[in-house]
Amino acid sequence: MSVSSASGVELIGLVKAYGRTVAVDHVSLKIPPGSYCCLLGPSGCGKTSTLRMIAGHEDISDGDLLIGNRQVNGVPPARRGTAMMFQSYALFPHLDCTDNVAFSLKMKGVAKAERRARARELLALVQMDRYADRLPAQLSGGQQQRVALARALITNPSVLLLDEPLSALDPFLRDRMRAELKRLQTELGITFIHVTHSQTEAMALADLVVVMNEGRIEQAGPPQEIFNRPATAFVARFIGGHNVLTRGPAMTIRADRIALAPAAATEVPGPLSLVGTVQSLEYHGASVHLRLDAADAEDFGVVLSETAFAAQPLTVGAVVRASWAAEDLHPLGP
Amino acid sequence: MLGIPMTTTVTTEAADEAPPARGLGIPTAWRPYLQVAPLTAVFVLFLVIPILTIVIVSFWDYDSVQVIPDFVLTNYQELLGSPVTWKIYLNTVKFTVLVWALTLLIGFIVAYFLAFHVQSVVWQTALFLVCTIPFWTSNIIRMISWIPFLGRNGLINQTLINLGIVDHPLEFLLFSDFSVVLAFVHLYTLFMVVPIFNSMMRIDRSLIEAARDAGASGWQILTNVIVPLSKSGIAIGSIFIVTLVMGDFITVRLMSGGQSASVGLMIANQISLLQYPAAAANAVVLLVIVLLMVAAMLRIVDIRKEL
User: Fold this and answer.
1) Residue of B nearest to A77 (CA)
2) pTM of the full predicted structure?
3) CB count in 10 Å sphere of residue B173
4) Spelled out in words, what is the top-level CATH class assigned to the domain B82-306?
5) Pick from A84, A106, A108: which is nearest to B213 by CB?
6) Do A90 and B210 touch (CB under 8 A)?
């Protein structure tokens, strides 16, 4: 297999406007070559529009797009060195797996025997060589996705764009494909840009997580940084595992850095604690997730290790004091 | 020991009472046949019996005053032995091929425009309705309205002469093969547009993006994605056109001014001369030919997924 080189992608003040609505609002981002980047955000945050602009399937309203230090605004999709994997996979229903994968080579005029041989190599890469003669309708969702992946990779792209690649799969398959994507990215060494609304997916895969909201980037950084030092209340809430304290200056405290102790309902909370009632309790195996209803923080999440919970079991309706250490508090930006 | 049989008895009784008595006493094995009976009756009455009648009559004898029940092959012998028949059949096939090619070309372009170039659903619906407007009047009226337009002193000839483009009126415009094909195309193109438009609307738009992503040009997208995925619509439209044109007699009679003939016209003439057995033999041959043409098309394209 010929090895394609990775390209970096740079977005400079990128804007996408549909009439008066602005889907992507002056987004600037630098994605280093060979990295796994996840665009993360709720639906309608502009992440898909951003991806489609990078792919060349959406016109850029304003700003510049650089792929491998080359400005590519207006360059047709196939000449950007990118390849896209579509959310619905978009396999050609009238072509078998081999011809689907070989499609772009056929467009380039590569001879039939040569392009089919190359397509089979790619199918082997995604462990689909056994199904080479099947039509897409005869494959399961996970198998279709592997074929779509092979089809995208046959052009030797330097950047692979994935639009919600795992959302159509069942949870078990999703975890397996996730591992597979990471393996492929490491093996091929090319840049992956992956759009998702699942923070678990982004955390598990990405070197660079870009959290987007309302057409803007809220925060971009490695997953550890996003999780430990969320820049805004939106990021803290969206990635989960955090409580945003509204008392005084905006701060967050991680849900797994909180200690619980039984308390009297009349107890007055200190600066590093609050008093609330246990509203729900979920056993997750290694951990127990509780939600507290407190006067100044409704829906306050606490994650206890199974051992800590077993040492001091609680029931729904119990009044508790939740306390934390000052060094675990993380101040939020404006 | 005693409790167990008692429980069993109770359960059995409950199971016996459970299914509601809705069978009307009809044995279960008969029910599916009864359910398909009404449709079968309709088909037998309006399709099988008439066709069998035609087949039977095609073997009868006749003279100038009566039809004689018999079993003779003379109708087929006269039909297939006459060079006139062959000429007329060839002429009908010629019309069919010409009309099919033209309606396919025009129909595909119109359907493509509606399905891929018109972006708003409102405009798509509006333009689609515009296509159906000619169907608000009868076929005959639509054919006749060509006559003042194409005639010797019609609009086209007058315009061409006034503009000095030609000195004499163009004779081929009316009462010719040209006018027959023109009328056919005008009458039947919509039968090609509708099924092709329908199959084009089912093409997932992301397939076109995927093709573009793979470097396909507009023409390559058309030939590699859109045409293959419109095949079933093309096949259905083609079946409409072939059956309509092969069986037509009125368009050929009106638009050729009696100068051209088709199988349908030949059958109509035989009926007006009370030569029913000859007409029936002709109809059987025509039916066989049309069925063979349709079968050939179905061999090439699987239309089941469209139905």
Assistant:
1) B213
2) 0.81
3) 19
4) mainly alpha
5) A84
6) yes
